[in-house]
UniProtKB/TrEMBL annotation:
Record keywords: Acetylation, Isomerase, Mitochondrion, Peroxisome, Phosphoprotein, Transit peptide
UniProt record similarity statement: In the C-terminal section; belongs to the enoyl-CoA hydratase/isomerase family.
PANTHER family xref list: ENOYL-COA DELTA ISOMERASE 2, PTHR43684
Protein name in UniProt: Enoyl-CoA delta isomerase 2
Species of origin: Pipistrellus kuhlii (Kuhl's pipistrelle)
Recorded catalytic activity of this chain's protein: (3E)-tetradecenoyl-CoA = (2E)-tetradecenoyl-CoA; a (3Z)-enoyl-CoA = a 4-saturated (2E)-enoyl-CoA; (3E)-nonenoyl-CoA = (2E)-nonenoyl-CoA; (3Z)-octenoyl-CoA = (2E)-octenoyl-CoA
Domain annotation ACB: ranges: 41-126
Amino acid sequence: MAGVAGRLARNWCRSAVLSPLQVFSFPSLQLHLSGTAMRASQDDFENAMNQVKLLKKDPGNEVKLKLYALYKQATEGPCNMPKPGVFDFINKAKWDAWNALGSLPKETARQNYVDLVSSLSSSSESSSQGKPGADREQQEYENLVVTSEDGITKIMFNRPTRKNAISTQMYQEIMLALKAASKDDSTITVVTGNGDYYSSGNDLANFTDIPPGGVEEKAKQSAIMLRDFVDTFIDFPKPLIAVVNGPAVGISVTTLGLFDAVYASDKATFHTPFSHLGLSPEGCASYTFPKIMGPAKATEMLIFGKKLTAREACAQGLVTEVFPDSTFQKEVWTRLKAYSKLPQNSMRISKQVIRKIEKEKLHAVNAEECSVLQKRWLSDECMNATMNFLSKRSKL
Ligand SMILES: CCCCCC/C=C/C(=O)SCCNC(=O)CCNC(=O)[C@H](O)C(C)(C)COP(=O)(O)OP(=O)(O)OC[C@H]1O[C@@H](n2cnc3c(N)ncnc32)[C@H](O)[C@@H]1OP(=O)(O)O
């Protein structure tokens, strides 16, 4: 197979003066827009064809074959060529790749082509920005520790003395770190907490910093920031895993519904005391929680503020697996390191396929939740609960 791969590479590179990526735009990949069969995604398809030519990194023969096959399937349908002879290695490899797509519908092939190119573009972009590894330079954050090693980018909340409560600056930093992780070379991204808490949720002191426009302006700014924050999770393109090292409260619980896997220590608890704080759900939990655990269990958490143990949260489907605290870090990181070695593009594309149908809905839910909260923050119920906590008259 190595011989065939080598010959494939040479064959595609034979046009000599061309860079490997220009060569990669083999003749049959040029789009012949016939004006027929124009569909909604034709523009995306066309853009993807152009993007392929701009890739900075050679994606390798396996991916090239996949692109070739998807292109042929998208434009011509199932393989219609006679099978090349056994010694015609290159055409045989191309034929095999196309034929393997069977009766995949044209529009699915087109979509898969677009998705594959999009994943290649982002990894090619990021490869010019940095390499994975322990020594990789990381942006400095005040409230996070971000590291990248073994194909895993780890974003760790780092305000342990405040139980990792999320300040306004920390929301911004988390968004920045997620955006950077979405473009780096890592295969998976992990969010965790430093210290005994995963996170105690929104820093209740966030609402004491009132701008000149008054509390209404504060509520408006907070709703915009919250919407952006949650959108970043909804749109995150690669597997996102929460390593819940201890108790989680409020928004650090609701956003778990947007993660792809949640591993928890048996010391973790899951608490969304929105009614106690005069608030309402955020992080798309009004949609994801009833979907994950059924409406009755979601009501107990989101309306009555029932705190779940890690095992209860696992039984409800919010948590993937629970580990004894004594072996939690070792077991989880061993597993994550194994997962991080799986093929990057395949994982990305699988996530896209799994999440795509929900994306629009999640953005709409997020917008609605933020608009409701904007009003809630101005309510007496919420203001009193916040003042009671800050004046140390109450705790959860
Ligand atoms: C701005 C736009 C976005 C808004 C999004 C909407 C989000 C909603 C939510 O997330 S709702 C949930 C909000 N969180 C809370 O209500 C938790 C409040 N904290 C507590 O009840 C307790 O601190 C505790 C149960 C988490 C931990 O109790 P304990 O173990 O006794 O520790 P301490 O209380 O002594 O905590 C140490 C230190 O940290 C401060 N702190 C902890 N959590 C928060 C917080 N969420 N906000 C602000 N400050 C927090 C706590 O006050 C202590 O400070 P001190 O040492 O006393 O100065």
